[in-house]
Amino acid sequence: MADFVKVAVTSDIPTGQLRAYQAGHTKIVICNNGDEYFALTDECSHDAAPISDGNLDGNNIVCPRHGAKFDIRTGAVTGPPAVIGIDKYELKIEGEDILVKVD
Ligand code: FES
User: Fold this and answer.
1) I need a surface site. Which of 45, 65, 75, 98 has the fewest CB within 10 A?
2) What's the whole-number average pLDDT of the chain?
3) Which atom of ligand 1 lies nearest, measured to the CA of 48?
4) What is the domain count for the chain?
5) Which atom of ligand 1 is nearest to the CA of 81?
Protein backbone atom coordinates (compact mmCIF):
# COMPACT_ATOMS: atom_id res chain seq x y z
CA MET A 1 0.00 0.00 0.00
CA ALA A 2 1.34 3.41 -0.95
CA ASP A 3 2.18 5.76 1.86
CA PHE A 4 3.89 9.10 2.31
CA VAL A 5 7.49 8.92 3.53
CA LYS A 6 9.81 11.77 4.43
CA VAL A 7 12.69 11.97 1.99
CA ALA A 8 14.22 15.44 2.36
CA VAL A 9 13.82 18.95 3.70
CA THR A 10 13.11 21.87 1.40
CA SER A 11 16.47 23.56 2.04
CA ASP A 12 18.23 20.49 0.58
CA ILE A 13 17.06 21.39 -2.94
CA PRO A 14 17.73 24.98 -4.08
CA THR A 15 15.68 26.64 -6.81
CA GLY A 16 16.42 25.17 -10.24
CA GLN A 17 18.10 22.09 -8.75
CA LEU A 18 17.31 18.39 -8.43
CA ARG A 19 18.46 15.69 -6.06
CA ALA A 20 18.31 11.89 -5.99
CA TYR A 21 16.75 10.05 -3.03
CA GLN A 22 15.68 6.61 -1.97
CA ALA A 23 12.02 6.61 -0.93
CA GLY A 24 11.17 3.20 0.50
CA HIS A 25 12.19 0.79 -2.26
CA THR A 26 11.94 3.42 -4.99
CA LYS A 27 14.68 5.61 -6.45
CA ILE A 28 13.28 9.07 -7.08
CA VAL A 29 14.45 12.49 -8.14
CA ILE A 30 13.00 15.61 -6.51
CA CYS A 31 13.01 18.82 -8.55
CA ASN A 32 12.52 22.42 -7.44
CA ASN A 33 11.37 24.79 -10.19
CA GLY A 34 11.22 27.74 -7.80
CA ASP A 35 7.47 27.51 -7.27
CA GLU A 36 6.96 23.87 -6.33
CA TYR A 37 8.71 20.59 -5.69
CA PHE A 38 8.03 17.51 -7.83
CA ALA A 39 8.95 13.85 -7.41
CA LEU A 40 9.61 11.54 -10.36
CA THR A 41 11.14 8.13 -10.88
CA ASP A 42 14.91 8.39 -11.21
CA GLU A 43 15.06 6.29 -14.36
CA CYS A 44 14.81 7.52 -17.93
CA SER A 45 12.23 5.65 -20.02
CA HIS A 46 14.60 5.62 -23.02
CA ASP A 47 17.56 3.59 -21.73
CA ALA A 48 17.26 3.64 -17.92
CA ALA A 49 19.81 6.37 -17.19
CA PRO A 50 19.54 7.98 -13.74
CA ILE A 51 18.01 11.28 -14.75
CA SER A 52 19.05 12.84 -11.44
CA ASP A 53 22.47 13.14 -13.14
CA GLY A 54 20.85 15.53 -15.63
CA ASN A 55 19.65 19.05 -15.06
CA LEU A 56 16.57 21.23 -15.05
CA ASP A 57 15.63 23.46 -17.96
CA GLY A 58 12.61 25.40 -16.74
CA ASN A 59 9.92 22.79 -16.13
CA ASN A 60 11.84 20.10 -18.02
CA ILE A 61 14.28 17.58 -16.65
CA VAL A 62 16.94 16.72 -19.23
CA CYS A 63 18.38 13.20 -19.31
CA PRO A 64 22.20 13.24 -19.18
CA ARG A 65 22.65 10.28 -21.53
CA HIS A 66 20.87 11.19 -24.80
CA GLY A 67 19.05 14.41 -23.94
CA ALA A 68 15.43 13.29 -23.62
CA LYS A 69 13.25 15.79 -21.78
CA PHE A 70 10.34 15.22 -19.41
CA ASP A 71 7.91 17.71 -17.90
CA ILE A 72 8.57 17.62 -14.14
CA ARG A 73 4.93 18.56 -13.48
CA THR A 74 3.50 15.50 -15.25
CA GLY A 75 6.31 13.11 -16.22
CA ALA A 76 5.28 13.48 -19.89
CA VAL A 77 7.89 13.39 -22.66
CA THR A 78 8.75 16.85 -24.01
CA GLY A 79 11.83 15.97 -26.06
CA PRO A 80 13.26 12.91 -27.91
CA PRO A 81 14.58 10.26 -28.03
CA ALA A 82 12.23 9.03 -25.25
CA VAL A 83 8.70 8.28 -26.43
CA ILE A 84 6.95 7.37 -23.19
CA GLY A 85 6.71 9.35 -19.98
CA ILE A 86 8.13 8.58 -16.57
CA ASP A 87 6.30 7.98 -13.31
CA LYS A 88 5.44 10.97 -11.16
CA TYR A 89 4.72 10.61 -7.45
CA GLU A 90 2.50 12.58 -5.11
CA LEU A 91 4.50 14.98 -2.98
CA LYS A 92 3.51 17.15 -0.05
CA ILE A 93 5.30 19.63 2.18
CA GLU A 94 4.82 19.56 5.96
CA GLY A 95 6.74 22.39 7.57
CA GLU A 96 10.22 21.95 6.09
CA ASP A 97 9.73 18.27 5.33
CA ILE A 98 9.23 16.87 1.84
CA LEU A 99 7.12 13.72 1.84
CA VAL A 100 6.55 11.49 -1.18
CA LYS A 101 3.92 8.78 -1.67
CA VAL A 102 5.54 5.55 -2.83
CA ASP A 103 4.65 1.86 -2.81
S1 FES B 1 18.73 7.12 -21.45
FE2 FES B 1 17.71 9.03 -21.25
S3 FES B 1 17.67 9.82 -23.27
FE4 FES B 1 18.59 7.87 -23.48
Assistant:
1) 65
2) 96
3) 1
4) 1
5) 3
The CATH number covering residue 92 comes to 2.102.10.10
| DSSP per position, 40-102 | EESS-TTT---GGGSEEETTEEE-TTT--EEETTT--EEETT--S---EE-EEEETTEEEEEE
> How far is the centre of ligand 1, averaged over its atoms, from the C-alpha of 25 (Å)?
22
Confidence (pLDDT) at 1: 67
The answer, yes or no, to whether any atom of ligand 1 lies below 6 A from the CB of 61, is no
Is residue 47 within 6 Å of ligand 1 at its C-beta?
yes
